[in-house]
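Proteins fold reproducibly. Take a tokenised chain:

. . .
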Amino acid sequence: MVIKISEFLQKDIRFVTGVGEARAKQFNKIGVYVAEDILYYFPRNYEDRTKIKNIIELVDGETICIKGMAVSKVAESRIRKGLTLYKILIRDTTEAITATWYNQKYVANRIKLEERYVFYGKVSVKFGKKEIMNPIFEEADSNQYTQKIVPVYPLTASMTQKVVQNIVGNCLKAVDQGVQEFLPHWVRGKYMLAEINYALKNIHFPDDYHSFMKARRRFVFEELFLLQLGLFRIRHKSQQLEGIPFKDVPELQGFINRLPFSLTEAQQKVLMEIQPDLKSGKPMNRLVQGDVGSGKTVIAMLTMYMSVKNGYQAALMAPTEILAEQHYKGFSDFFAKENMKICLLTGSMTKKQKKAIMEDIQEGSADIIIGTHALIQEQIEFHGLGLVVTDEQHRFGVKQRATLASKGKNPHVLVMTATPIPRTLALILYGDLDISIIDQLPPGRKKVETYSIDDSKRKRLYDFLRKQIAEGRQGYIVCPLIEESEALQVKSAVQYAKNLKESALTECNIGLLHGKISAKEKEGIMRNFMNGDIDILVSTTVIEVGVDVPNATIMVIENAERFGLSQLHQLRGRVGRGQYQSYCILFNDSKSKVSRERMKIMQETNDGFRISEKDLQLRGPGEFFGTRQHGLPDLKIANLFSDMDILKLAQEAANHLLEIDADLLHKEHRLLRQRLMKVFDSRIKDLMLN
């Protein structure tokens, strides 16, 4: 029985009753490929259709079930081309109500006079007359779609709730309570977790609220437990490796003293956390996170200095060529008086240039190597790689970091990110890393003045932009879309740039940057902006992680309500990087409470960590991070803000399991091992379980 069910769960989704070829393609678009995926395609919400009210009790705006008899034939009336109404009068023992459907001709054949039905829909009460709009209905004793708690699934445009509900139901019937439990008995017992078949049934079609909560708790725990277990396994494996024991570098303090600025207390604290890692004899795996301008690059530079002074090469991988070039220029300036050779390696270099640099890297004459993804190409060989630094970690992934590290013999790894995230979320996303935080900005850094305005202030803004440009400054205008959308009335970068050139800011040089232009074009446009040839850069969010343009003092964000707080903060971080007062202007025409809260906190604080906490609270983790880490499983059900108590239990369980059976080889842990291998991306399995 178990073997048959396990085989069924891995069958292509098209073989599940009710799917077929066409629907299989629709399911593939939402990440559902095999039968098991549909069981883990959790509802996004639920409708409580268990409550039935008497018609006389109904109030305007509520969505509810009523039970009554059809006391009139279906009346059809064509209002205009493309709109036909179907109406019927329904009566219970208390009163009558009209049921109305739009363009649903089938209703006329389905509802029979003087038969009893249950209707579920939204009630409208106008001038004393009650109406239920587009109700779902079925025969009174059916109980298939009403008088129960009904799941509401995320859909693609061509799917319906009924179709997905039926297919999930068919899948549950096919496995018939026979899905094999993979959570160890001791884990379920200690943390009071529901059995898997009970949980699957009640996460999709809960018997009641209590059953749903038991099912949800099991899957939240399962999701976080597997994620933590995988990341802890990666960390555990790295801690078993023999690393490069660095020695103290007496010259370090003299180098720090020669810097044109003093280190902040936060930078000094992080440096003190890094140094023992380097001397431990185990490979360092440390994340340094801090706000834009907090001085992470200086920490990376000092760590690389220690690597070179210990006789090893150090490599820094940046997400874009411009950022790599910026690091190269900065490092070259700082190390100008040191006897160190710094090299830059990027994809756009000529074969001849690459060949010469690769020879320097292989021979060991290159001490510090800065580059893009080009650094992880197979043909690149390091002479003695002691330290790997990745900049803007969320643009890379666990596997890419490991690929660069594999170029040496267990080198130390330092990861930097300017995306401040709450420590709790960092523990999830970077569970394989130790975490250091630079929570202090250098003295004298001016706060970016932030204002939320609506469209009535647009002319005033353009006047301000012209004034700033006339004074020699530059600015960004960010739009959420590239081209006009009929469905969403939001600013388009392409059209907006055209309009500015033709009307509002004709005297300014306006550049346009978006994701659909080639990498080479992007690089050219950014260089022109850095050089001052472009006054205003109209862009999509591709400039969110970008280069240092100290002369840029204005960040205008159109349709700010469409961005998360953390993304708005990252965009704001593009300005305020020089000596001039900088400004961030948020256009927000939304009247929603959440939107107002977002704008308010952006105006109140420039603290990225406080902002990220609020963002997590307002949006949840699903969309919080933007670019997910390559190789890590998605969070489908857990919310890191509301499920913090379960996260702590999951981490406790994962830690305990690794203490008693680090390789998950005990008989009771083998199914868990298989599950772990399945949910993690194939690209990082080899890092986790060998």
